[in-house]
Amino acid sequence: MKKNKIYVLTGIISLLAFSSCVKQIDKTFSGNTVVELDAAPLNSLTSGQTFTIFNRIPPHGIPVSTTRDSTSRRFSGVIRLRVNLVGPQSDQSQTIGYKIFPSPVTTFAYPATLTAAQAPPTGQLPAAPAATLAILDAVAGTHYVALSGLCTIPPQSSFGYIDINVLNAGATAAQARFIGIQLDSTGSLRPNPNYNKLGITLDQR
Question: Closest Cα to residue 94, out of 105, 104, 84?
C-alpha cells in the first residue's frame, strides 16, 4: 500500500514540476508594421532582377501557376494587386503610397497561352505560341488608366488593393508593355523593402 502511495505522490510531483516549465507562447505582434505586395514573396525573382516580373496575371495568396493562370495576352480589364498589412490591424483606415517605375529589361520571354484542355480559365483568345517580346513602358491613358499612387487598407483589415485598369490599345506585333509598381513611404504606412516591388508585362501581340 505504501508503495502505491509513493508512486502516486511521485507522479503528482513530476506533473507539477513539468507544468511549471511550460512557457506561455505570446502571439502578440511586436515588430514594426509594414506593408508588402502579396505576389512578391510568393514567386521567384526574375533572373538578374531583385523583384519578380510577371508575364501572367498573379492570383492572391498563392504562387503563379503555368497551368492555371492566364498570361496577359491582349488583356483588357482590371488587374488587381493585393497588398498585405504585416502587423496589427487598426480601427482607422491606413494608407500605403506607391509609384510607377520603368522597365529594367528590353526583352522578356512569354509562354504559350493556355489551351481549352488546361485548367480554368479555359483557353485564351487570341491564342499565341511562346515567344520573346520587345518591352516598352506602358503609357498612362493609352495602355492603362492613370493610377492614384495611394492604396487604402480599411479599418480592421489586413488587405488593400491596387487596381490596374488595363486599356485595349490594339495589337502590336512582337511587343509587350511594362508596368512597374513600387510601394513607397508617402502614405501612413511603410513598405517592407524586401517585397515592395513587382512588374507586370502586357503581351500586345
Answer: 84
- Yes or no: say if 114 and 70 are a contact pair by the CB < 8 Å rule: yes
**pLDDT for position 4:** 53
Please check whether residue 44 is in contact with residue 29, taking contact to mean a CB–CB distance below 8 angstroms. Answer: no
Question: Mean of the pLDDT values across residues 135-159?
Answer: 97
Which three three-digit cell numbers place residue 145? 488608366
Instruction: Return the number of other C-beta atoms located less than 10 Å from residue 199's C-beta.
Output: 23
CA torsion through residues 119, 163, 157, 191, sign: positive
Q: Tell me which residue of 52, 34, 60, 31 sits closest to 183, measured CA to CA.
A: 34
- All three cell numbers of 26, joined, read 505570446
Q: Is the omega angle on the peptide bond into residue 126 within 30 degrees of 0, that is, cis?
A: yes
* CA geometry: angle 132, 135, 138, nearest 5 deg: 140
Query: Which has more pLDDT, 123 or 155?
Result: 155
pLDDT digits (tens, 9 = 90+) for 96-105: 999 999 999 9
User: Residues 189-205: pLDDT tens digits?
Assistant: 999 999 999 999 999 98
What does the DSSP assignment read for 8-21? HHHHHHHHHHHHHH
Rounded Cα distance between 100 and 185, Å, is 14
Residue 92 contacts by C-beta under 8 Å, 6 or more apart in sequence? 155
